[in-house]
Amino acid sequence: MIVHEVEGVSSEKASKLLRHYMSERHRYVEFASSMERLLGQLLSSANNHVEITARAKDPESLQQKLSIKRYDSLQLIPDLAGIRIVTSYTSDLRAICEIVRSEFDVIEEVPHGFGQPDAFGYASQHMIVRLTGNRSTLAEWITMADLHCEIQVRTIMQHAWASISHALDYKTDQEIPGEVKRKLHQVAALIEVSDSLFDSFRADVEALREHYATVSSAEGWRLLPVNHDALEATLGKISIAGIAAKIEALHLPVNGVGDIGSLSSKQKEVLSGEISAIAERAALLGIKTMGELDAALNQPQAIQVWADFLPSYVKEAREKKMRLYPLRHEFVIALTLKMLSYRKAKQGVARRAVPKPSADPTTVAPQRKKPTARD
Known about the structure:
By secondary structure, the protein is an alpha/beta fold. It has helices at residues 2-6, 12-45, 59-68, 93-103, 133-136, 156-168, 178-214, 218-222, 228-234, 241-249, 265-284, 290-297, 300-319, 329-353, and strands at residues 50-56, 81-87, 104-112, 124-131, 148-155, 254-255, 327-328.
């Protein structure tokens, strides 16, 4: 009940504001949810990998806030609707904030911890925004045109610090007991170093991927190691002509590698899974370079495993009236390596099962005496 919610609020004005918020809270819930969807679309189109959460302020939290600070109206309370954007890298923070500035009217912007040498631990970009004139006149937004929202932007590591420090109730350096201050400073430093290392790691990975993409000579790509990024860059160069001929002889088409950049997120997820399988199975077979992988797929035994497998597969599919879809290039490679690994393992078991002759004469079974005329 509202009476219970406002119990303990220090002034009549604060009590009135809390009642007003309770009657309007559904609008803030809808606003936060709509902002979450919109920001998800805006940041997804900009290829930013983020986690976005939204909330309307809990009445108990507002009651506590009103007991500490005086406000004349709900419009002056900045965080009744809130969005938190968590990204992997500090280098993405600026791009995300630029998108927010370009899409919303920013009332206030406060960088917490960034560029402040004496700042303790917590770092996050806080922005108070409202809808711009163009968007606020649209039918789906017009009922929320007078509301504003607090957007917090931080990295995963900064979010971890915020969550832990919030649980410990340490908001400033002065609040920390001297006995544990040094250790907490060490944690804060490690988080900052981790963010820096993650950025450096991403830069190295992107540089390596760019190098793989530029290796276009026949011999050049063959020397690349078999890993996920090298496979993605050179997948279309790997020949499966002999295998494809066997497959297509049974009227099963094999699709070539298309433009990876044009794939949907679901298709990219499937492709990534197949590439991971190729890298894993190549390692099991002792294949270390792209050239060795290409050679392995064109050896007679690679073609033979498909010759052995396909007739029964096609027969079973037709008996069950299953639709036979075209096979993808990367799927064929992954399955070929899987069948080669299985055959290699089976041959190894067979070789171990053959008993070796013993050199110990005591273990040799006595030979039966041939029958004679006397017998």
